[in-house]
Amino acid sequence: xxxxxxxxxxxxxxxxxxxxxxxxxxxxxxxxxxxxxxxxxxxxxxxxxxxxxxxxxxxxxxxxxxxxxxxxxxxxxxxxxxxxxxxxxxxxxxxxxxxxxxxxxxxxxxxxxxxxxxxxxxxxxxxxxxxxxxxxxxxxxxxxxxxxxxxxxxxxxxxxxxxxxxxxxxxxxxxxxxxxxxxxxxxxxxxxxxxxxxxxxxxxxxxxxxxxxxxxxxxxxxxxxxxxxxxxxxxxxxxxxxxxxxxxxxxxxxxxxxxxxxxxxxxxxxxxxxxxxxxxxxxxxxxxxxxxxxxxxxxxxxxxxxxxxxx
Length: 311
Prior knowledge:
It is a single chain. The chain has helices at 20-32, 54-64, 82-96, 111-117, 124-138, 176-185, 199-212, 234-241, 252-257, 264-276, 293-309; strands spanning 6-9, 38-41, 69-72, 75-76, 103-105, 144-147, 152-156, 170-171, 188-189, 223-230, 259-262, 281-286. It is of the alpha/beta class. A 6-stranded parallel beta sheet has the order 3-2-1-12-10-11. The protein is globular.
């Protein structure tokens, strides 16, 4: 099978004090009219800055666009009832004609978000695994009966079923547990804040977990989320980005290795480092002042995305 190389984008820091709807449409229309393959939205139950809610935003994008694919990066599975999540995602896939790319994860380490969702954080991994089983079963459109630790289903049918059969399900997260979940239950693995050096280790572990489970994860279903900032001067790009990057996830050396701040050729070089480790699908997020985000995405589409898709 020939590997397809694709770049999607996630909005950077959302501007405050602007019309959120108009800005969203400007972002989506730019992506729809460019070489960008897909758009992605993170899920935050609580955020000190404006963050688009992924489920409602994806439904709006399904109606707004004809070509663009889209997905959540990632839905926090423990926060949601899986049957309702299966139904919402199935309907969005129908409305978009099969352009949805669902991805799930276990969520952040913030205890307060789990308390707000009414879910014990210590249950998040087990809830996520159980939810994935239910999602897959519900997406077939057949009646589903399930007797799990957290949810019990008795002949539940989710209709209309997704256009995509089977619906692909990507798994986010950098941990070995996330790699195991991707191998045992998922169709792809897409971590963030992972260096090109560590990325191929995760790919091989995911493939090994899949083999142990008697499954196959397609070899072109691996990628990473990469923060970027375009500028002829790498130091200036990095300085512009740093105020918008959550600190504490990685040290400075690892941060420089898993981000791409500088001219377009530096971004392409960083992506090629991940490609050498088995990656082919990427989400790039601009880290810059909000009023420069659309300019950065247009530059990325022309100088990085278009040539990368032709590789």
